[in-house]
Amino acid sequence: MIRYQKDMIHGGEENPAGGTGRFTSETLFTSEEMAGKTGMFAAVTLEPGSIVGEHLHTEESEVYYILFGEAVMVEDGKRYPVSAGDAELCPAGHSHGMENNTDKPVV
Fold first, then answer.
1. Sign of CA dihedral 60, 10, 23, 18
2. Looking at residues 73-89, what average pLDDT do you find?
3. Pairing outcome for strands 78-83 and 87-90
4. Among the listed residues 75, 68, 62, the one whose alpha carbon sits nearest the alpha carbon of residue 100
């Protein structure tokens, strides 16, 4: 299945997961298209100065792969710097969040 960028579902959220600022998203494939094997498969952009609040994943895991920029990932209350090329896995039963403390977006 090919999904062209122009056909992706575009969205956004203010103060994501109780954080501050904004992120935008482009859904590459929906959960239904992925046969329910993933809840979210999207390219997410976190605007400068924005924070995705730390939140618990109870039923499913979530992966972040940093394509562009630098951020701080928070995993179970611990802070880790990440940048383009790094990946983060938040397994079910754990919490995570992300902070963009720079003047450039993080994708």
1. negative
2. 96
3. unpaired
4. 68
Cα 101 from Cα 22, distance rounded (Å): 13
Say yes or no to pLDDT of 48 above 80: yes
- CA of 74: how far to CAs of 32, 51, 65, 82, 96, in Å? 29, 10, 14, 10, 5
Asked if 52 contacts 19 with a C-beta cutoff of 8 angstroms, the reply is: yes
Sign of the torsion angle spanned by Cα atoms 37, 16, 51, 3: positive
Cα separation, 70 vs 36, whole angstroms: 31
Global pTM reads 0.84
How confident is the model at residue 21, as a pLDDT?
94
Q: Are 3 and 28 in contact (CB under 8 A)?
A: yes
The H-or-E segment that residue 23 falls in is strand 22-29
